[in-house]
Amino acid sequence: MSDKDSHVAKKDGASTQRDYVLRSVEERRVKFIQLWFSDVLGIPKSFQITPAELESALEEGMTFDGSAIDGFSRVLESDVLAMPDPRTFQVLPTDSSMARILCDINSLDGSPFDGCPRNVLRRTLEKAHKMGYSFFAAPELEYFYFKSSDPSVKLAPLDFGSYFELTVSDFPTEIRKQTVLALEEMGIPVEYSQHEDAPSQHEIDLRYTDALTMADNIVTVKLIAKQIAARHDVHASFMPKPLVGVQGSGMHTHFSLFQGTNNAFFDPDQSENLSEVAKGFIAGLMRHAGEITAVTNQWVNSYKRLVVGYEAPVYVSWARNNRSALIRVPKPKANKPDSTRIEYRALDPACNPYLAFSVILAAGLKGIEEGYPLPQEINDNLFDLTPKEMVQKGITSLPGNLDEAIRMMEQSDLVADTLGEHVFEWFVRNKRDEWTAYKTQVSQFELDRYLRVL
Description:
Layout: H1 3-27, E1 32-38, E2 44-49, H2 51-60, E3 62-65, E4 79-84, E5 90-91, E6 98-106, H3 117-130, E7 134-146, H4 171-185, E8 190-195, E9 201-206, E10 209-210, H5 211-231, E11 235-237, E12 253-259, E13 262-263, H6 276-296, H7 302-305, E14 315-316, E15 318-319, E16 327-328, E17 342-344, H8 353-370, H9 387-392, E18 396-397, H10 402-410, H11 413-439, H12 444-450
Parallel strand pairs: 1-6, 15-16
Antiparallel strand pairs: 1-2, 3-4, 4-6, 5-6, 7-9, 7-10, 7-11, 7-12, 8-9, 12-13, 12-17, 14-18, 16-17
């Protein structure tokens, strides 16, 4: 197909999608359409329009004041365009009179706006596409249910179950079930849902799809989970470490690259069927893991989870069957060798998925491009090794707190190039402010430990 024919096909496809959206709104008697987008930190934003404005919005976008959104425009260049992506149209299962469409943010001249996280991921995916790859993801979202979101009230779990437990109280399981059914109704397929290790901790695993769609889905899952929990006067929290002494919430995510319909990570002629592309991708992730951690784990609280003793990854290593490793290569089912993939275990569900997927992909592609050698697989339980043994094996650690992570990110050309100057500079500045605010606080831990004796 010529470039001209391809352009015409894309244009016709977009017109078909727009027609479908307009027809669906009319037939399903939708009263309001929410236009969703994300700020740089991944906090969802929206404004809503009526059906009378929808056709114009789909064609021309909707102007709004970008200076009101963190990480967007400066005051002197405030207006931006929200361009609805009609492929993301869905009627909300929590309110049948309301639909949502996810948006790309453009500058007023129609060019992609540099501060839009969705545009950052699009750029990185385009780089992968030019190398012949498509990028797929399948996350496992862990989260907690609490009786209240009031930080002045002690957190109260809804149950005290553990892994895969059929809890005595069916209440949290019912809330999770309603969440899964709502997601399925929106066209977001769920592979598994279960009780997790900690009290009142649950998990929803999404079936793999392309990375942009999956980032959209993660934003949607968190909003729907919170909305359905609120219906029951319960708070769903995706905070990485809300409770002391138990596991935090991660978002272990399975990734793969495809070349057309072929899994680029699979090679039947290689040991364990792991291709050179997969090895380069893993090596890239390992070499740049420290640099990207401020993005994959972007909050002060994220580093309360990344500690020894709670099954979260701390050390930069890979293995085929070692859950203490940062990168795991799950063994595919016997009849599905082409499902070869990697699992990156540092991510937490409070990250901005658009930016997190971008830096993970960029690091992996760098490893492929530069031919990074794959370090030795580590099958030891890393939590049992001494510091001396770590050094002997060449194993390094992820940053221990947000300050360390930002320092490493600031020195990273890869992260700067991937995020772009606008997002990179704002992100670093925002996280510096967060760390400054955090380190000046006096915690209850300090008062309990020191006040009477010092």
